[in-house]
Amino acid sequence: MNQFELHILGCGSALPTRRHLPSAQVLVVRGKQFLIDCGEGTQLQFRYTKLNYNKILDVFISHLHGDHCFGLIGLISTMGLLGRHAPLTIHAPGNLENLMKPQLDYFCKELPYEVRFSPFDSGKHACIYTDRSLEVYTIPLRHRIPTSGFLFKERQNDRHILKDMIEFFNVPLREIPAIKAGHDYITEAGERIPNGRLTIDPTPSKSYAYISDTLYTESIIPYIKGVDLLYHEATFCEKEKDTATVTFHSTAKQAGCLASAAGVKKLLIGHFSARYTDDNVLLNEARNTFGQVELANEGLCLEI
Amino acid sequence: MNQFELHILGCGSALPTRRHLPSAQVLVVRGKQFLIDCGEGTQLQFRYTKLNYNKILDVFISHLHGDHCFGLIGLISTMGLLGRHAPLTIHAPGNLENLMKPQLDYFCKELPYEVRFSPFDSGKHACIYTDRSLEVYTIPLRHRIPTSGFLFKERQNDRHILKDMIEFFNVPLREIPAIKAGHDYITEAGERIPNGRLTIDPTPSKSYAYISDTLYTESIIPYIKGVDLLYHEATFCEKEKDTATVTFHSTAKQAGCLASAAGVKKLLIGHFSARYTDDNVLLNEARNTFGQVELANEGLCLEI
């Protein structure tokens, strides 16, 4: 099975507590690590996982609030001390480069690798990253400043070859990639063998949607429909709904409703307000509207 | 007894480990909190102490390496969220204001208090802070970039009044401040009563010297002579002396030698390299040259 694994490094909100660190996650797809948000302390949290700093391929920042990006400068600096050479691309809305440049120029002037900034339009749903196995799409959110969620979508896997049939029809090796991609096979005698006789359906592609921070908005449903795992912020309880509305955040109940409406397989809630000493009140609230919910927590690792 | 208390929030060096956080300390003098260096994670560490963010009076940054100041932006931002109103002064060598300004303007534009930068010349020994009870002096160090240690010196306490003698000579209340300050008393009849008959010596003033990061340098001895507590970096063991020299750091043995030469009352070592899984090797080495040594550790609180 292809690795598609989520590590929670931080799932608190802006105010620090003893229980949670600010937002940071790592999605590992077939050995490649993608960092999602980077609150203060992210580099320290790495030390409590089996993850390796220098395997981070790209960084995706949802929005430019401090609890989602204050850890970047320390992480960038440490990756330099540890001898990183591969360029690091940071996808973020707005002009993060301008904000970080004075510090990068001063504190990281001897960095042995290149930091590239790749700004995106948080108002649009667009593909901002693609490789052989993964596509990453932005999901426009409704927060106090331009904010985007992310959809991580494994690319369509190859169809599985039926070895017996390949031997039976004497298919030459060079034709295999085309057959795995779904093409029919034409024998040397000119006979067409339909792909369905040579292959079976591929392993379903996996998908993960990261939604933080946002006001409750059904506009995201088409983008997150049926994902294997949805992380949705649940900063507040329904009792604090007014505060949620004013601060452009969601309640646990709203996260559950969205998960249900989008028919996702599993919901993970996070971005907990510092006011809750027991996050189970949020869990229970979300569970009333959606069955498959789990609380995010530092150190949690989910195989998707 | 006047409060003069040191809290260690972080005593590691640049590379993060599970054992230590980067440099940060709080000195509490009669209820006033002074933050010394502010590595990443400082604001999180506050949550593990009885300290209160918004009681921080001034911040003293020894030098502009990331492991000594990357926690500033998060702390400044959080103090704003918690409703700080008192201005915050940050003393630092170099132009920290220029480095932080783009981020302060962007992330902290609604800050309810003022952040003031007070640059100092790290090449000079000078008084950079003074109030009724405390003076803070810079101590020029030898590191790869301009770096300064700090001497925190309680101001001369008042002489203790001998109540019986004050009554005996019928000293009016208005004369007490002058007598506490050491002046003689002239009676209404014109007789001079020497101060020594009216008072006894004050409680000795306390002092704390913070030395991090530096190459071994005896030039600091006159500034730290006889202090009650000396924090000195001990990044390496004597076995790694060459690495210490190249990176402009000290060994534990060197810290002990300096403490001994300066006749300090107690030595606290810190800024441990990530390579040591047991800091006791550093402690034992320092103990060979100076008797009163202790290892810094996160959470340690010393009453000076």
What does this structure look like?
2 copies of one chain form a homodimer. With 304 residues, chain A is α/β, with parallel strands linked by helices. Chain A has 2 domains: 248 residues, 4-Layer Sandwich (Metallo-beta-lactamase, Chain A), CATH 3.60.15; 41 residues, no CATH class. The first copy, chain A, is 23% helix and 27% strand. Chain A contains 10 helices and 18 strands. Chain A has a 7-stranded mixed β-sheet. In chain A, β11 and β12 form a beta hairpin. The longest helix of chain A has 12 residues. Chain A is globular. Chains A and B meet through α1, α2 and α3 of A and α1, α2 and α3 of B.
Please report which band the strand proportion of chain A falls in: under 5%, 5-15%, 15-25%, 25-35%, 35-45% or over 45%: 25-35%
Helix content of chain A: 10-25%
Oligomeric state of this protein? homodimer
Order of helices and strands of chain A: EEEHEHEHEEEEEHHEEHEEHEHHEHEE
Mean pLDDT of chain A: 96
CATH fold node name of the largest domain in chain A: Metallo-beta-lactamase, Chain A
CATH class of the largest domain in chain A: Alpha Beta
Q: Terminal Cα separation of chain A, in Å? A: 11 Å
Tally of domains of chain A:
2
Largest interface: A-B, 32 and 32 residues
Largest sheet of chain A: 7 strands, mixed
